[in-house]
User: Fold this.
Amino acid sequence: MREKEIVQQLEEHEAALAAAAADPKNKGKLPKGGPDPEKLKAELEDIRNFKPVGWILVDFPRTLS
Assistant:
C-alpha cells in the first residue's frame, strides 16, 4: 500500500536527519537527495483523509462470449 511506503520513507528521512545531527563532521548539513518530506506528508494526509463515495462494479456484466 502507498500509505506504508510513505510512512517508511518519512521514517528513513527522520533517521537520516538524526544521523546527520549526531555526526560532528557534518556541521549541521542536511542529507541531500530522496523525496521531499513535505510532499510526502501532504500525500499521506490526502490518503488518510480520503472518503470513498459510491461503489465500483468489477467484471460486470460478465458473459462467456
Summary: Residues 2-49 form one domain. The longest helix spans residues 2-22.
